[in-house]
Amino acid sequence: MSDETPKGDRIAKVLARVGVASRREAERMIEAGRVTVNGKRITSPALNVTAEDSLSVDGKPVGAPERARLWLYHKPLGLVTSNADEKGRKTVFDALPEGLPRVMSVGRLDINSEGLLLLTNDGGLKRKLELPSTGWLRKYRVRVKGTPKTEDFAPLRKGVTIEGERFQPMEVVLDRQQGANAWLTVGLREGKNREIRRAMGEIGLDVNRLIRVSYGPFRLNDLKPGEVEEIKPRVLSDQLGVPLPEGHAQAKPKPKRPGLRKAPAKPGGATPRRPRPAPRRKG
User: Fold this and answer.
1) Rounded to two decimals, what is the model's pTM?
2) Residues paired with residue 42 on neighbouring β-strands, in sequence order
3) What SS3 state is found at 53?
4) Nearest C-alpha neighbor of 73 from the set 65, 84, 81
5) Is the CB of residue 271 less than 8 Å from the CB of residue 263?
6) CA distances from 168 to 145, 159, 174, 189, 209 (A)
7) pLDDT single digits (tens) 160-197
8) Distance in angstroms (rounded) separating the CA atoms of residues 137 and 91
9) What pLDDT digit, counting tens, does each position of 76-126 carry?
10) Distance between start and end Cα atoms, the chain
11) What is the pLDDT, as a whole number, of residue 15?
12) Which residues does the annotation mark as catalytic?
């Protein structure tokens, strides 16, 4: 038995990097017999591949990984955040504008939620953005039915356990009352399934609108429903350490402007002011 480490990377990792699917989804695709390596169909993800190997998914060749890219997408209501839906409902990927490469969503927004959804072509970047250790705050504008008071949200600010599942403390700000509804701003650092709706239900409030407005440093701003905007490579480099593509020079630090040098103070106090010369007499 050889003790040498196999060359290359696990095939599911490679498929994720080129934007085919997440690692878990890629593993399911392999087990379903949808992936071939060098013309041979495989059914186990326990395989390493290199750049010399030829990969295909559903009979279509898989190209080399492109540079990591990230897009902001304003998800409209009524779309499912998945590649396919067993109920035949329209998905986010059915509605994306033409011209985008194959992309994956960073996390999810449920069918009744709207707002900012991040999309990437790189499985490693997707995983990095989804990890709780990243610690990025995700902010939501939330409309609830009723007339709550700010103290009603105290349990959520401390963290609650619902059906055995622990939710971390939330940031909750009561913004305004609008008729029979109240608007809130809610901040999370982890995104569990229907977390805000379930947490609000725990204190007797029903959510009737939920809009994600930011994910870490990335904001929805004026992006309209259905629109997509790509994050500039420089921002990706600064925020996430993604290498800049060729042709993008690294930013040079701005030189410090020389300041005025102050005269050293004399012992015993401040430097005395020089007396003005006496005015000259005329004549």
Assistant:
1) 0.72
2) 35
3) coil
4) 81
5) yes
6) 23, 5, 19, 8, 22
7) 999 999 999 999 999 999 999 999 999 998 878 899 99
8) 26
9) 999 999 887 888 899 999 999 888 888 889 989 999 999 999 999 888 888
10) 114
11) 87
12) 110
- DSSP label of 91: B
Q: Are strands 206-215 and 114-120 parallel, antiparallel or unpaired?
A: parallel
Structure tokens belonging to residue 229: 């905007």
Q: How many Å apart are CA 123 and CA 139, to the nearest integer? A: 24
CB of 167 within 8 A of CB of 161?
A: yes
Kind plus residue range of the DSSP H or E element containing 104: strand 104-106
Is 212 within 8 Å of 166 (Cβ atoms)? no
* Rounded-to-10 torsion of CA 174, 176, 178, 181: 0
Sign of the Cα torsion 81, 87, 93, 94 reads negative
pLDDT tens digits, one per residue of 8-30? 888 988 888 777 877 888 899 99
Place of tokens 């392999």: 30
Angle at alpha carbon of residue 192, lines to 191 and 193, rounded to 5°:
125
Separation CA 114–CA 130 (nearest Å): 18
